[in-house]
Every structure is written in C-alpha cells, then in structure tokens.
Amino acid sequence: MRRFFLKKGKKYNPADQYTQDDIEEILHSVLIDKEAHKLPAAFLLLLSTSEDHKIQAAETLHRFLLSTSMKELLRIDTLFREASSLDWTYNWKNESPHALCPPNITNDQKVSVLGLSTFHLNGYFREKALIELASYETGREIPYMLIRCNDWVPQVRNTAMRLVEERLTVDYAVTFAESLLIIFKLRSLKRVNHEILFEKIVNLLSKKEAVPVLKQAAHSKENHLRYTSYKIMIHAKVLNKSELLTYFQREKEPRSRLLLFNEIINNISEADFLKYYFLLRKDKFPKIRVQVLEMFHSMNPQQSIEELEKALFDKNESVRSVARYLLKKQGITDFAPYYIRAIQQQSEENVRGALLGIGEAGRKEHLPIILPFTQSYKAEIVKAVIRSISLLDAENHQDLFLKMLMHEHIGVSKEARKSLQRTSYYDRIHELYRIYKEGKNSHSRYSAALLLSSLSKWESIRYSIEFSNNKDDHSVSRLGENQLKNWVATYNQSFQNPSQEQVAAIRDALKKYEIAESLKQEIEFCLRGL
Description:
The chain has 530 residues and is mainly α. It has 31 helices and no strands. The protein has a domain of 73 residues. Helix 13 runs parallel beside helix 15. The two termini are 53 Å apart. This is HEAT repeat domain-containing protein.
C-alpha cells in the first residue's frame, strides 16, 4: 500500500489517495479474513470525501467488533498504538471524532467508530472520542471507557474514570459483567491504583439486583468470563458452599475448577468436608486430589489409612507419592506388598497404578513380577511396565527398550525412548541407526533419530546433518535442522576434542548431504585444525 505525507497545516483526506483495489483489499482483510492488524488501516478509510467509502469502512469495523471478545479488544488497543507505521501525520488534534461517523450509519455503528477512536495515538483525539461516546447509552461504550482508565495521559485517564463512574448503576450491570476481563486487567496494572474503581464495580455487581447477571456470565462459553465471574462472586461473598460445589461440578476448565475448589475448602467445617469428600477425592485434577487427601488425613489421621491405601494406586504419580508420605507418618513404610498383591490379583482398577507404584517404591528383585506385562495388549499397561523397569534397572534392560522402541503404539515407543535416555546407550548406536533406516513405524524412526541426535557433541552432529536431509519425514528433517542450529549456537559450551574418526564422519556427511551454506561454513570453521 502507498504511504502519504502531510505538508504542515494543509488539510487532506488520506483515504482519497487509495486506489479502489487498496480499499477492497483492506476491507476484505478485516471483514472476511478477520485480520485484526488491518483495523488501523480500515479506520483510516473514514478520512475520505466519499460517503460510500466512509459507510463501507464504518460497517466493516462495526461487524468486526460485534464478534470481538474483551481479550481481543485489549489486543486491538495495542495494535492501534503500534500503527505509527501508517504515517498518521493527519492533524488529529483538531479533528472531531464525530466527523468520522457518516450521518447515515446507525447509532450502534457510531459507537464502534468512536470506540476505536479512543484507541488513537493522539491524546486530544482520544479524549474527544470519550466525550462523544458518553452521549450514547447502549452499554457498548463501557469497555472502551474502561480500557482508557489506564491511559498514559492523565487528562484522558481522568475523563475515562469519571465516565465509568457515571455508569455504575444496575442498568449497566450486564455490560460490566461482560467486561470483567478488562476490569481485572485494570486492577493488575501499575500505572495508577485502580483499587477504588475496582471496589466500586464489585459493589455494583454484588448488589442483589446484579447477582443474576454474574451468575448468567458464569454460564458463558468464554473461559475467561466464567473465571472472572467466579472471582468477583467469591470476592463479593455471594455464594455458599453448595452453590460453589454446583459450579465446580459443572466447570471443565482447570484454572476455574481450582479457584472454585480453593473457595470450597476455605474455612470448611469438618462435617461439610466429609459430606463433599467422596465427590472431591475422585476429581480428575491431580492437584485437587492431593489437597483433598491431605485435608482428610489432617482431620482424621487414623481413619484416613484406608483412603490413603486406595490412593497408592492413583493414576497420578504425585497423588501416589503423597499417599506414601502420609502413610509413613502412620508408621507404614513398606509399600511393595501392596503393589505386588494388586499385580498378582490383576485387578482391573488397580493394576496400572500398582505397576507404576512398584517402580517408585520397589526393588530390582520385583522385576520378574512385572516383566510379563510387557506382552499386554493394552498400551497403558506396557507403558507403565517400561517406566517402572527404567526406574528399577534401566541399564540392564536396553535390549527390551530397543525392542519397545519399535512398538506399533506411539506412546509405548515414546516411553521406551525416555527409558533409553536414562541409560548410557552409546554402544547401541548401530542398532538405533538400523531402526531409523528400517523401522516400520514413523514414530519409531523419529524416536531413533532423536536418540542419535542427542548423543555427545561430536558424535551427534553427523546424524543431525543426515536427518536434516530427510525428504520423507518432515518431523525428522525439522529435528535435524533444529539440532544443527543448536549445535552451532552452543559450540563453545563444551571444549571436548573429537576423535579423528568423528571428524572424518562429519566431513563425509557434509560432502554427502546438503545443508544451509551458512551452517556448513560454521561447522567447517569448527573443524579447522582438528
């Protein structure tokens, strides 16, 4: 797009200089492609002598903003501040924001134009836009006013805060609830202290008439809106334990679930906790299960033993670890018998946890009990066994890990790779290279490539050169390219000298395979004198 400059004092309309193709490209980018970074350019189209172009621009901006979240609106504010690349040399100080609004557009569209005007680089123009916005009482003006409450120009900031406070009535509760993300963002900013304004908004939304608005916001599909609704209801203390539990059971997003959970257990009575315990202990979030277990133990140390024994088989390592720690406080220190018994019984519910637990709390002599499970048809069982073997005696089971590296299930292959990485697998290079070249599964070949490119400084480089040339598997070629760049970047972190065989292998690889010329020169420079 062409750029235009203003001779000082001369009135001009930048959009008149654009070709029809320029205008159509900008509007299409905003309306159809949803490219937010083109909004400042579309806004500039309002500076046109053509009413048709101004109306098109206003309608496009409005339609884009109707589907914009509060999080995106904050980003658009930043985009406008960064729009100096558009050469905004227009005399905005003396321009009226209202003049940008074609007379034939709707009031709602005017709010969109004036709202974006509050994002402008020029402080005089932003303040005038705020004052113009104040003449509209649709509620859509409030998010723009809230954003300007943190403006870097005191006059603009004070005007915005005054206008927001004028709207602190129940009539605007819905809009304030929808703007909770911006409100909490304001509270976290350091330019000025927004605590007084925050408390006033909280007080508004804490009123009996406004609580239904918050509860409605808590059913939003937007994760951040639900989260901030919970936060403000908790802050306002308008929810009892039963209501919190109802929200907690329905909520899927981890951050919101943890927020609700922490409030549920805050100052909870033992009777209420026991009432909710059997629901909370099965929560899918491990951090919550850990806290529930710890609370139950603190309230009923002796009675908690049975529950702690069940938790020994939890699917999460941190829960199993906490269960063992709390049982040790009760004098129980040997956990292998628990896991061996469950493995021998092959309990559908506990066998995976038992296989993992024996690796964490068992000894080498327990290996014969778990090795047969490597033949299981269930990938999660095989993964658990491989992990436990690697914890108990990794070095002596490299053959098994190499075999499992070629497993048809990607998760099993990945676990085998992690297990090999815990060993000194330097003398298995030829087997790994054979898997890379001949492996039936792409994930097996990739795992072998990753292990080879993770070798020592001078041993790995020749493989990385080869991998970067893989034409059949982009994941392998990307791995090779990234490892080469990393090798060059970290070259001086190790001063180990290569053997003559390693130098020869690297030079052969450089001759055989093509890599970026800049990388090739850097590697050759490193090889000089060796």
